[in-house]
Amino acid sequence: GTGKEMFARFLHHNSDRADKPFVAINCAALPEHLLESELFGHEKGAFTGAINRKPGRFELADGGTLLLDEISEMDMGLQAKLLRVLQEGEIDRVGGVETVKVDVRVLATTNRDIEEFVREKKFRQDLFYRLNVIPIKLPRLADRGEDVFLLAEFFRDKYCAACGLPRLALSEEARQWLLVYPWPGNVRELQNLMERAVLLAGSGPIQPRHFLMDSETWVPEDESGLTPEAAPARPASPGEALSVMPLHEMEKALIFKSLDATSGNRTQAAELLGISVRTLRNKLNEYKQQGLDIP
């Protein structure tokens, strides 16, 4: 969640390989036999269901950059095969008899203590040294100070463009809020919040209330420097009413904003909201029964 893939893309696009492919794969997302096929490709008939030859990620990234995310989760047997690729510059497709030359810059990331994994023999020492040429440690978002503004503006521009909106301004109060919030979810949380803020801010500017954080998960300390106007409101006791928008109203606002942004396209709106089209239609039917006009 610290933005490892974003940083990897930045390195790629600012290198002499920028006009070549950038390919990423999450090593923790696939079992060993599928990960091997995804990395190195397979020949027709290599296994049940292999009806055609398929190039792997190394071939797809030839000339460019391959990001191996969460490499610490890779099986030891596959680590040995990866080491050979890095040393020899060639791959063997699953079920193949010929080697294929590849020219790939490999970036590897992990959120684990990889040196501890090496000591515990969960990660090959020789592979670690082969990969650990230029180590880069990405700090938590909360430790990056005003870098949060650059990232927030990047995500704001991304979602404004996706929604067909002009670039929305970040109010001074919103910037102050972004600076003091502890960001337990790191960059991924910031991305989600900026998407939500763009949808709710309308014509802008973006204010702290548009982030709509759960007030019980974070309460700014007095010494944080966050002004009462910038802090999201919270109840003083369980029975006290929230001064932020109720959850069902927030949900409704997000749905209608998404429909406006996509000119009523249900499929695009559902994708923007991160829900299925069926769920969106069910919600719209509820609103229709309440007598609301549906875009």
Walk me through the topology.
Elements: H1 4-13, E1 22-26, H2 32-40, H3 57-60, E2 65-69, H4 76-88, E3 90-92, E4 99-101, E5 105-108, H5 114-119, H6 125-131, H7 147-163, H8 172-180, H9 186-201, H10 247-261, H11 266-273, H12 277-289
Parallel strand pairs: 1-2, 2-5
Antiparallel strand pairs: 3-4
Helix pairs in contact: 7-9, 10-11, 11-12
Q: Can you tell me about this structure?
A:
This protein has helices spanning 4-13, 32-40, 57-60, 76-88, 114-119, 125-131, 147-163, 172-180, 186-201, 247-261, 266-273, 277-289; strands spanning 22-26, 65-69, 90-92, 99-101, 105-108. It has 295 residues and is mainly α. The protein has two domains: 4-131, P-loop containing nucleotide triphosphate hydrolases (Rossmann fold, 3-Layer(aba) Sandwich); 141-244, Helicase, Ruva Protein, domain 3 (Orthogonal Bundle), CATH 1.10.8.60. The strands form two sheets. A three-stranded parallel sheet has the order 1-2-5. A two-stranded antiparallel sheet has the order 3-4. Helix 7 packs across helix 9, helix 10 crosses helix 11 and helix 11 crosses helix 12.
